[in-house]
Description:
55% of the residues lie in helices and 0% in strands. The protein is an all-alpha fold. The mean pLDDT is 84.
Amino acid sequence: MKKDDPFLDPDHASDNAAVDTDVREQVGHDTIEAEVKDLERRVEEIDVALRKISKNQYGICERCKKYIPQARLKLIAEAAYDIDCEKKLRR
């Protein structure tokens, strides 16, 4: 994904491109940076879930300590909260 970042193009710094090209490159760069951050966050959440498995704590809501429904874990294996607690945290 990083290889598609227009800012990593060696010609980017020396290119005297039009303003609209600069804007497109900035948007492309920002999009890739946001996607990378999101993937890094998800990897960390998955690592946390794997550590919970080894401690027999997987599938337990971090907020209310109730079991997270299996249907939710099938959709979001790294879920740390049940649906009710997730909603409360996002308010």
